[in-house]
Each structure stands twice: as C-alpha cells, then as structure tokens.
C-alpha cells in the first residue's frame, strides 16, 4: 500500500472572470530516489496535468458566479507533497475532493447604492460538487499482474501503469494508460470493477471524515477526530 502526505490549501478571491486554479508542488524531501523513472520536474508536470483534468469534473465554473456579468469566485487549490511513497495521483484527487467539500462560501451581494461587494460571514454555503470522481492506479507486471495502489518501489519496477477514474454512480470518467506494457480488454474491465469497489470504500470514509468536521463559532473548522481516509 502506498503512502503520501499532502498539505492542501484552498483560498478564494473575487474576480470578474471565473476560473478554477490547481497547483501541485513536490518538496525536495518528498520523493525517495527515482519517481516512476521520471525526473521530479517531469513527474510534477504529469501529476499537475491529470489532477487539473480530473478536477474539472468536481464543479462547474457557472456555480462560482456571484452576480452575472459583475462578480464571481475564483478558487485556488495549492497542493504540496510533504512525503511520498507511491501513487501520488490518487492521493491528490482524494485530497482535492475532500478540500473542496470542506469549503464554505460566505454570502456575497452587490450593493445597489455603492456597487461594491458586501460579504455576510454569518451566512455560508458549501460549494456545489457535481461529481465525486476517485482515481485508482495499478502497477502492471508482465502484462498479467496488476497491483492496486502501488508503492514508489513497485512503480519503479513495474513495466507499465494504468489509472481508472470512476464516480459515485460507477460511471467511467477517465482512463490513463501512459505507454508501457499493454493490457487486454478483460484486464482493463477487471481494473474498472476494482476501481468501482475502491470508490465506494473511499467515498464512505470521506463521508465519515466530513461529518466529523464541525464548524466552530469563529468560522473555523476543527480537524476530524475519529474518521480517517487511511487506516
């Protein structure tokens, strides 16, 4: 089983053009040796590209609109990998989903008199998360053995990698197969079924974590006390 320790911060700003920004950074101490035969910069680019691609399924930009033609929310998600031992892509997708589900937007209106934004911190709403995609990665050995949630060592030794992304309705959202060993249709179907099972496991744990986060009176939130995504 892989392990990845991530720090993820979400902050929002007012703007006239709505967009959703995601950045991924690797600390100099996070990677242990070779990372899936890629340099750190190349690896960071691959993670960033696919996290941004999959994250577009979480929410629609139209949901960030405060008042059409005047003001919108801009969402910045910054991820820093503090420790890494494989399967960082899956961890990034789960962390991003959890962070977005935890966001609370204050009520904002445009003053008729001044034309300026007025923020009411006493009224807050959660982001409208349209889908809950979860990625499941597999390390391929000899075209026949598929190991789910590979460690960094297994990624290095594998002859290929594959990532399956499904949502809460068992719909296939994406398949990422970056070269390497081939995979038969039967094997890919097995991976999809395993990804659907893992989605239910992850989504259940994620729901427990979100329920355990209780907003405090000062607008901040306490960390989860009991539930954990990784046991």
From TrEMBL:
Protein name (database record): Ribosomal RNA-processing protein 43
Places the protein is found: Cytoplasm; Nucleus, Nucleolus
Exoribonuclease phosphorolytic domain segment(s): 64-106, 133-195
Alphabetized Pfam families for the sequence: RNase_PH (PF01138), RNase_PH_C (PF03725)
GO molecular function, one term: mRNA 3'-UTR AU-rich region binding
Keyword terms of this UniProt record: Cytoplasm, Exosome, Nucleus, RNA-binding, rRNA processing
Assigned GO CC terms: cytoplasmic exosome (RNase complex); nuclear exosome (RNase complex); nucleolus
Keyword Ribosomal protein listed: no
Positions of transmembrane segments: none
Superkingdom of source: Eukaryota
SUPFAM superfamilies recorded: Ribonuclease PH domain 2-like, Ribosomal protein S5 domain 2-like
One GO BP: exonucleolytic trimming to generate mature 3'-end of 5.8S rRNA from tricistronic rRNA transcript (SSU-rRNA, 5.8S rRNA, LSU-rRNA)
Signal peptide: none
Family: Belongs to the RNase PH family.
């Amino acid at each position: 089983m892989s392990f990845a320790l991530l720090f993820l911060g979400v902050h929002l700003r007012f703007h006239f053009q709505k967009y959703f920004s995601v950045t991924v950074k690797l600390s100099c101490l996070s990677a242990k040796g070779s990372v899936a035969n890629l340099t750190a910069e190349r690896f960071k680019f691959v993670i960033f590209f696919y996290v941004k691609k999959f994250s577009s399924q979480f929410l629609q930009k139209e949901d960030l609109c405060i008042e059409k033609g005047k003001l919108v929310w801009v969402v910045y998600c910054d991820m820093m990998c503090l420790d890494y031992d494989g399967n960082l892509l899956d961890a990034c997708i789960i962390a991003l989903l959890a962070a977005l589900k935890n966001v609370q937007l204050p009520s904002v209106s445009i003053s008729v008199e001044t034309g300026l934004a007025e923020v009411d911190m006493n009224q807050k709403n959660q982001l409208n998360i349209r889908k809950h995609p979860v990625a499941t990665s597999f390390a391929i050995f000899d075209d026949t053995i598929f190991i789910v949630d590979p460690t960094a060592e297994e990624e290095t030794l594998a002859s290929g990698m594959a990532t399956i992304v499904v949502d809460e309705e068992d719909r296939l959202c994406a398949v990422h197969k970056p070269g390497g060993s081939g995979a038969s249709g039967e094997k890919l179907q097995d991976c999809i079924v395993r990804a659907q099972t893992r989605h239910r496991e992850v989504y259940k744990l994620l729901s427990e974590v979100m329920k355990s986060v209780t907003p405090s009176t000062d607008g901040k939130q306490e960390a989860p006390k009991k539930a954990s995504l990784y046991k």
